[in-house]
Amino acid sequence: MFIKKFFLVVLVLVFFTRAPLLYAQYGSGDYGTGVYADSEATSSSSVSSNTTRSSAHANIAISSTPATPQSFRFTKNISFVTPQINDSNEVAQLESFLNEYEGEHLNVNGIYDIEDVAAVKRFQTKYRTAVLDVWKLPEATGYVGITTRLKINSLLQKTTAVCPAFTEYNGGITGIFQSEEVAKTQKMLQSLDLYTGNISGFWDYSTHLAMVSFQEKFHEAMLDPWQLTSGTGYKYKTTNKFLNYLAGCDEGAVDLDGAGTFDF
Length: 264
Known about the structure:
By secondary structure, the chain is mostly helical. The longest helix has 25 residues, at about 1-25. It contains 9 helices and 2 strands, in the order H-H-H-H-H-H-H-H-H-E-E. The chain is about 40% helix and about 0% strand. It has a two-stranded antiparallel ribbon with strand order 1-2. The termini are far apart.
């Protein structure tokens, strides 16, 4: 009986010793939850924006990593829940970007910890129209998915972008089928892994299919304003607006042919 009580006391002591460390590392309710690559949906909202750096990383010195170059493009998702998917260089570039552009004071160490999550959530809240509202998310997640990456890339390009970058109406029945802008569109679709054909400057069938996929992937910005449920492949007003956004240009609201205006 004495031995059983002794082991019980030991187990209780171990639990209460480890529990704070586990909480500090993973936060409340975030460990073991799912991550959605496109919707940015995670439960990392449970990590407070005021949470301090975990003790596991408290002694890591701030590195001298230079500011994120304007030519850098974020291409990979970054997660607090599943850190094994993270690329340490992209995390370090993210930390540098947030310090330079958003006035954060993060350790540039390539480790996506709870302080980084809180900074990303502040960024997502600031740009909620382009990052969260696209997915109809009510609050920031801290997960760096495609719309967060696109917004960051847009801000990096903004100082060097020649705007507007996209003005032509391409494809469809009446659009322009061959031009330099078609080639520019193909390059943009290629950068999003939606187009695998040649950069020919000609609006062929593979370009049409890539545009359909592009419009359906981001239907909230290109199709929903027209109350369309399927991609058309026609590069028209809202599609140009979203392409300009990706190129670092903010072109303001677009006219929906007499049915109001649309902006994001």
